Amino acid sequence: MACRLIINADDFGWSESVNEAVARLAAEGAITSTSLMVGAPAAAEAVERLASLPDLAVGLHLTFLAAPAVLPREEIPRLVDRRGWFPRDPIRAGIRYSCRPVVRNDLQREARAQFKAFTGTGQPLSHVDTHVHMGLTPSIFDLALRLAREHRAVGFRVPEDDYALYRRLDPEDARRQWGMAVAFRHLCAGQRERVAAAGLHSPRRCYGFFRSGRLDVPYLVRLIEELPDGDLELHCHPDLGTESGRREYAALQSGEVRRALDRRGVVLSTYRSWTAQAGD
To answer: 57-62 and 267-268: which strand pairing?
Structure first.
């Protein structure tokens, strides 16, 4: 089996500087896919850009943390603050979303509104993933997977990175992230099977978490050289308005990274192309 890699830019719609980075990388073929935050400040501008990017796969970046909601506060008062923003603490938010039925009712209304807003863009729904990986919260995973299936998404991200590989690439940093790796392995257990049972595709591994906001050329080249065969995803956060985002943008755009992809024989893919190839 070939190494088939989706390179997905998260947070499309967050700002015009994110949108510009995503649009440039997509036009150059450096990314294959993006995830749209439909309630984010620059979402409308992001959607306008898609008219000139017909080959870019677009998914829904379902958002319940540290961002504005789609619905007004009056409709989801238990979910957002006075500004209409979701909470910033993922642990406290996950507990509230899981343990309070009235909060889950607001959550379901907001989730449906985000899917409806995506449908309104006219884009075919490539995949569903969650901002800050909130899909690791079981109640959100259940809701997101059900709605992804209803709206005929093709893919669904299971965000477990490859800790064994990362430990080879950066042993010192890997030791610092051991606890997070254990937590992700535990929380992701069983998700791939449930995604497959729902008729959607998920990656064998989703790279980038252990290096989130810190992707650079040396790391990406070494990662690409070590990639296993199979259906994989690399998620990234290019942004021309921040130092870390510019670093990731430059790394994805670099000739060294492209040559590494060629040497490894990586087939740049989307969730929809995985589906088409599976049917051959």
So the answer is: unpaired
Q: What is the per-residue burial (b if ≥16 Cβ within 10 Å, else e) of 77-101?
A: eebbeeebbbbeebeebbebbeeee
Taking 50 as the pLDDT cut, the residues of the chain under it are 280
DSSP-derived 3-state class of residue 114:
helix
What is the rounded distance in angstroms from the CA atom of residue 147 to the CA atom of residue 78?
Answer: 21
Closest C-alpha to 84, from 95, 74, 98, 94: 74
Note whether 38 and 147 are within 8 A (CB): no
Buried b (16+ CB within 10 A) or exposed e, 123-135: bebbbbbbbbbbb
Residue 276: the pLDDT is 75
By the 8 A CB rule, do 157 and 206 touch? yes
Q: Which pLDDT belongs to residue 1?
A: 74
Digit-coded pLDDT (tens) for 177-197: 999 999 999 999 999 999 999
